[in-house]
Amino acid sequence: MKIRLGVLFGGMSVEHEVSIITAIQAMNNLDTTKYEIVPIYIAKDGVWYTGNMLKDIEIYSDMDLLKRYAKEVVLYNTNGRFVLQSKKGIFRKIVSEIDLAFPIMHGTHGEDGALQGYFETIKLPYCESNTYACCVGQDKVFMKQIFETNKVNVARYKWFFDADYLNDSEKVIKEIEKLGYPVVVKPATLGSSVGISVCHDAFELNEGLKDAFKYDTKVIVEEFIKNAREVNISVLGNYEHQELSPIEEVGSANEVLTYEDKYIGGNKKIPSKGMASAKRQIPANLSSELVKKIQEQAIRAYKALNSSGVVRIDFLISDDEVYAIEANTIPGSLSFYLWDYAKKNYKELLDDIINIGIKDYKKRENKTITFETNILKGFKGLKGAKGIKK
Hints:
Elements: E1 3-10, H1 16-27, E2 35-42, E3 48-50, H2 63-69, E4 71-78, E5 81-86, E6 94-98, E7 100-103, H3 114-121, H4 131-138, H5 140-149, E8 157-161, H6 162-167, H7 169-177, E9 183-187, E10 197-199, H8 202-212, E11 218-223, E12 229-237, E13 242-244, E14 248-250, H9 259-263, E15 280-281, H10 288-304, E16 309-318, E17 321-328, H11 336-340, H12 346-365
Parallel strand pairs: 1-2, 1-7
Antiparallel strand pairs: 2-3, 3-4, 4-5, 5-6, 8-11, 9-10, 9-11, 12-13, 12-14, 12-16, 14-15, 16-17
């Protein structure tokens, strides 16, 4: 019997389109002898849709057409069945059922733990990292703080809320300037290089902060690592076991890897292949000592976040020093291009992610999360509503 696999993608995020690309790549490579694929598209306004036409990337160029033929649905648990029910019509019919959710979301409201928290609330099994790992993995400030306590090396940084900058921009600028120019400004909870800028003086810094605060209430500012090379590695597994991909070096003509580098690849006329579009060298040309150092730091970072499934961890290397930039708990293209070089094809990688998700769910179900004893039984401390102090 096939597993009914709900693939969730899109979402209310600036990485919406990237998520669509990643999800369609995955759906095209899932083993259809094992899985019945149920696409679940979350539009930018938060409305959920399902329908087989959502497996075709061309449908997303005409949203009116998509909304006309795809079914608007809600997902809920009814007596242990996880159903997609139509939201329209007099009779709200059950359109489909799923056994397992595979969130292929990037950014806010999907990769940040919000969706995973909903799955756990309705007891729906799902793949990839849990609520906590996704939440910390999405917030670069939280992530760096946890990395530091687990001996994962990071570049020096400062962080601020938009209110800090609005209340006293001069104080914020002076604090950042202690890092020395240039600095890298990033929205704290975004990915795909959205809102990132390299600033060489106070004017550029002010402009970079203003731009970053368009996307997020919190911003992180890092020292710029000079003469750095960006390398990435993917980790597959969970807290018990970790498998490492080859290391890639990602190239860019810019000071930092941009959204265009990652997803457009310099040619806007050719449809994007997601992260597979970026210029890269696999395996990276590194000494055995550097490879070992990156691998050790990657496993330490993966375990520190309590990650599960496939994660891509990005590093900068300079003068034989390794700096962790961030961990992507649902990486672009699910890092399949890295695992190809490890002789694990995309279909096998997806099988592994799904199997790990099923095992993680079974382990969670075996843990005690509530007590059968009701400590309020017979409690007479409150005398109806009148006994409640306001």
